[in-house]
Design brief:
The complex is a heterodimer.
Chain A (H helix, E strand, L loop, with lengths): L4 H28 L17 H7 L2 H34 L5 H13 L2 H15 L5 H26 L3 H8 L4 H30 L2 H6 L6 H11 L3 H25 L6 H5 L4
Chain B lengths: L2 H6 L5 H12 L1 H30 L3 E2 L6 E2 L5 H8 L1 H35 L2 H16 L2 H12 L4 H8 L11 H26 L2 H9 L4 H29 L3 H6 L7 H9 L5 H24 L7
Antiparallel strand pairs in B: 1-2
Helix pairs in contact in B: 5-9, 5-11, 6-9, 9-11, 10-11, 11-14, 13-14
The chains are: A mainly alpha, B mainly alpha.
Chain lengths: 271, 304
């Protein structure tokens, strides 16, 4: 198709505008962390790091941060275990309902967040379970499993089964084959899936509002503060920190799975 | 190798070896063992929770004691249909989700066309990262950024004032929600459409040109129909994610900007009427079920 020069130029301008639209809000929010005023208005009157130390010493924020890290670590652990088990089962064996498993695993991410949140909330209420770190972890692990599953199964599909057969032929038992052949092959996929699961859990708000009860995770603390208009200068600093903390794992995961490209669709999903 | 090591590594011996051999021969047993843990998690927790959600939509809360009454009735649904407030909220949610989907499609198609077919390799890589950066940034952070941007003393009004256009009062309104949702979910639309444009073989376009079609005609009659599944795939995300949200309406919507999610959230928390919340939460679920059925027919699942 021969595009005219004018339409090419128009498309280039459009693409530039969209690129600016995508990036500008993020650059802007980074700047706000250095806002010296406690009024959040534009333009900023100078740049300063004066709010960094008070943010660091905010006890509520620290507790929320600690809870978020614990929840994310445990959820990631569960997701790594269950996600890779499911991936192995679905990859290696053909059985009735194989497609159904992939479908069910992705449901917590594909359905609107309030459904998963509401469902777990009524489940806990029904079972008389009171809200705790455990209930948060159950919610997070449920939607994190699929990120590990997707990464591991994509890697397994690219790996030849002859490797495993060769190992067994050479006399290794199942465990030795797993330890010396399979694990090294899927190692980076596991790390990538784990990093994504961590980022997903650390960032989650909607499901968490239904499973946390009175506890505050870091996103819940941020949400509450913004809604009530409290501690906004500190929120700005935390936001900068959160950007760094979710950015690093996802970029790392992206580098580790360049071959399969699973990261790009599951990365921002939460949501 | 030492004798000890040889013995230790002897295959198919001892309990472990025998277990290994049994598992190797019986593939189904391995599958069952591997699936047991994740299967139990999803069936006993997630699917059970979804089932309870549906069942509880037919229960009610005793107005006097505040306790759940496990008696089947459709009062919650009747209230949803008969009360005009809830009807407005449901229509607003679905309407804005549709508007956001259309907006994102209109923004994404020219961008994806440029990225997939006109940009150089180098530029493609740059654009790809630019599309991913918002996805990598915390959702809450992006909504907060827009709250600051659209605020009365934010950068939009500052810029408008600077060029002598006065100011707009867009913060805390349906317009703000439309802008913010369109921003937040735009990458989910761009990526599948981009891939769809890349998949169209160049020979199709050459054939169309050879047969005398102009660029515009080729775009409309050849390219667009082939890219449609990608657009529908993207719309699943933009539509579903908007339907189930209540954070954006809370942070950038106004007093009269409640979404289904806000009502659900309040009924679980403050108002403590879980059956009603469950009933209301079935609406986005039904809408999504219908939407997915249509999307499947349009071939969107292959484009995901």
């Amino acid at each position: 198709m021969s595009d005219t020069r004018a339409s090419r130029a128009a498309l280039a301008v459009w693409a530039t505008l969209i690129a600016l639209f995508l990036l500008a809000p993020i650059l802007l929010i980074v700047l706000y962390a250095f806002n010296p005023s406690n009024v959040q208005s534009w333009p900023l009157h100078g740049l300063s790091t004066k709010w960094f130390s008070s943010t660091w010493h905010n006890q509520e924020m620290r507790q929320a941060f600690g809870l978020s890290v614990r929840a994310a670590l445990i959820s990631t652990g569960i997701a790594l275990l269950l996600g890779s088990m499911a991936a192995f089962a679905v990859h290696r064996f053909r059985f009735f309902g194989r497609e159904a498993i992939s479908f069910v695993l992705v449901l917590p991410l594909a359905l609107p967040g309030i459904i998963t949140g509401m469902a777990l909330n009524s489940f806990f209420a029904f079972g008389g379970v009171s809200f705790s770190l455990t209930t948060i972890v159950i919610g997070h692990a449920t939607f994190c499993i699929v990120t590990v599953y997707n990464n591991v199964i994509a890697r397994l599909r690219r790996t030849q089964t002859s490797l495993v057969e060769a190992s067994m032929d050479l006399g290794a038992d199942g465990w030795q084959t797993f330890r010396h052949v399979t694990l090294p092959v899927i190692a980076t996929a596991l790390v990538a899936g784990g990093l994504l699961a961590f980022a997903l859990s650390f960032d989650e708000v909607i499901v968490t509002t239904f499973t946390a009860g009175a506890q505050n995770t870091l996103p819940l603390w941020i949400f509450g503060s913004i809604r009530l208009g409290q501690n906004l200068p500190q929120v700005n600093v935390v936001v900068l920190f959160v950007i760094a903390l979710t950015f690093v794992p996802v970029v790392l995961a992206q580098r580790l799975t360049r071959d399969t490209g699973v990261v790009r669709m599951t990365a921002g999903r939460r949501r | 190798m030492s004798a000890e090591a040889t013995v230790r590594r002897a295959p198919r011996g001892g309990l472990r070896g025998r277990a290994s051999a049994v598992l190797f021969r019986r593939a189904w047993l391995r599958a069952v063992l591997l699936l047991s843990a994740p299967g139990a998690w999803f069936v006993l927790i997630y699917l059970a929770a979804l089932a309870i959600l549906f069942v509880s939509a037919f229960w009610r809360v005793d107005g006097f004691t505040g306790k759940l009454v496990h008696a089947w009735n459709v009062d919650n649904f009747r209230q949803l249909v008969e009360n005009p407030t809830y009807r407005t909220i449901a229509l607003r949610t679905i309407g804005i989700a549709a508007a956001v989907t259309v907006t994102d499609a209109l923004l994404a198609i020219p961008f994806a066309y440029f990225a997939a077919r006109l940009a150089s390799r180098r530029l493609q890589a740059v654009l790809f990262v630019i599309v991913l950066v918002p996805l990598w940034t915390s959702y809450l952070v992006r909504v907060y950024a827009w709250r600051l941007i659209l605020a009365k003393d934010g950068i939009v009004n500052w810029a408008l004032h600077g060029i002598g256009l006065g100011s707009v009062d867009v913060a805390y309104s349906n317009w703000a929600m439309w802008i913010v949702f369109s921003y937040i979910w735009l990458p989910f639309m761009i990526l599948p459409v981009w891939v769809a444009f890349e998949r169209v073989p160049a020979s199709f376009l050459e054939a169309s040109a050879d047969l005398g079609a102009r660029a515009r005609t080729t775009f409309r009659r050849v390219l667009l129909p082939l890219v449609l599944p990608g657009v529908v795939a993207g719309s699943i995300f933009t539509f579903s994610l908007t339907l189930g949200d209540f954070i954006t309406p809370t942070l950038v919507g106004g007093a009269g900007s409640d979404f289904i999610g806000n009502v659900v959230y309040r009924n679980v928390g403050i108002a403590s009427n879980v059956p009603f919340a469950a009933a209301f939460a079935t609406i986005p679920l039904l809408v999504m079920a219908v939407y997915l059925a249509i999307a499947r027919r349009l071939g969107a699942f292959e484009a995901l």
